[in-house]
From TrEMBL:
Species this chain originates from: Pinctada imbricata (Atlantic pearl-oyster)
Chain residue ranges for the region called Disordered: 108-138
Protein name (Swiss-Prot/TrEMBL): Uncharacterized protein
InterPro entries: TMEM74-like (IPR029695)
Keywords, comma-separated and alphabetical: Membrane, Transmembrane, Transmembrane helix
Transmembrane regions: 12-33, 53-75
Origin: domain of life: Eukaryota
């Protein structure tokens, strides 16, 4: 069905973890640097204006840092989830006993199609019994 290449999976896993860590660092930097300044009524108006412009630019840069961190976390999470799903799909039949999800799916494959009941599989006609059940509800 598909060929599993473990070296590429390992490389993608490392890349996704690195992206997640970079995103966490960017977000931590964006949230830990203070954005406010202390107002000093004795400073000149021009100095206060330059201080306000500096902190406005700093807040903008920190917002960009937080947004970039969220983007890195999202990309790393998507790559990691894709690698995990690919690993589950490409699990070899010998290793399905190690994966409870795959072995559970294989054990349920002998059931008939969606919507059938035990009585229908055993050959009992359900038409008359449904009529009786419906008349009992009225």
């Amino acid at each position: 069905m598909c060929q599993c290449i473990s070296r590429h999976n390992d490389l993608l896993t490392v890349i996704s973890v690195v992206l997640l860590l970079i995103g966490l660092v960017l977000m931590a930097v964006g949230y830990t640097i203070p954005r406010t300044y202390t107002f000093n009524p004795y400073t000149k108006a021009r100095d206060m204006e330059s201080t306000e412009i500096y902190y406005a630019d700093l807040g903008f840069a920190l917002d960009i840092s937080i947004t970039a961190g969220m983007g890195f976390i999202a990309c790393g999470g998507m790559i990691m989830s894709t690698v995990m799903v690919y690993t589950l799909i490409c699990a070899s039949p010998e290793n399905t006993d190690q994966l409870p999800l795959m072995s559970n799916l294989e054990s349920q494959s002998h059931h008939s199609s969606y919507g059938s009941t035990e009585r229908e599989r055993s050959g009992v006609s359900s038409g008359r019994s449904n009529t009786v059940q419906l008349s009992a509800l009225r």
